[in-house]
Amino acid sequence: MSNPIIHAYDFDGVICDSAVETAITGWKAAGQLWGDMPTETPPDMIEKFRQIRPIIETGYEAILAMRLLYLGDSCDAIFRDYQEKTQQLLRQAQVSVEQLKKRFGETRDHWIANDLASWIAMNPLFPGIAEKLQQLGRTETWYVVTTKQERFVKHILQANAIELADERIFGLDRNLSKVEVLQGLLKTHPGQELQFIEDRLPTLLNVQKHPELAAVKLLFATWGYNTDSDKSRAKQQGFVSLNLTDFVP
Fold first, then answer.
1. Which domains does the chain carry?
2. For 197, which DSSP code?
3. Which UniProt keywords apply (predicted)?
């Protein structure tokens, strides 16, 4: 009998469709730094954020992305000069990445403390995911490997009746890259197949650069936060592309 497969899943864009909540939290946090922004997030800004979501790796970047959108930057311009534009905002606001991470987390915490139901409603799971993970947990071992803070992952999983031990959630709090987490999982499960499902092509390309991770099967989640260009390039790079209908029961 073959060894069971070990599953490692990214969270945002694979399990959870968090784009709207991330946009609103980013807008709220940006308003604390720049007082000229309205309190309520305009619906068109949320839609534009969804379009640029593929470029964002970690949640706190939504603060900068929403500010750029408010200032009138087009989605194309943000895609083209994202690093330069965000670095310029950091310098102008005189804030560090660590300060933005803290502000973003605290803004989420405040929303959760005051209206957990609406926060959960803005973080729906993709169709069929809850049932898949509930079933998977009975028979196989799975992990979350994410740049999201772990307490937020736990809130969302619990709200969807999904049980996952704390030690199987690798989030921002651990200060480990996804490469480092996967290296650790290979050591934890020697001789077993490790599959990593991720929706961000740059993340998969980065993992692919590490020869010590050659045994990890890399799967590209096409339903997540990626572009048509990403999908084409994923095929060219030889990644296995999964559609949501392939993934869920």
1. 6-17+124-247 (3.40.50.1000), 19-121 (no CATH)
2. E
3. Hydrolase
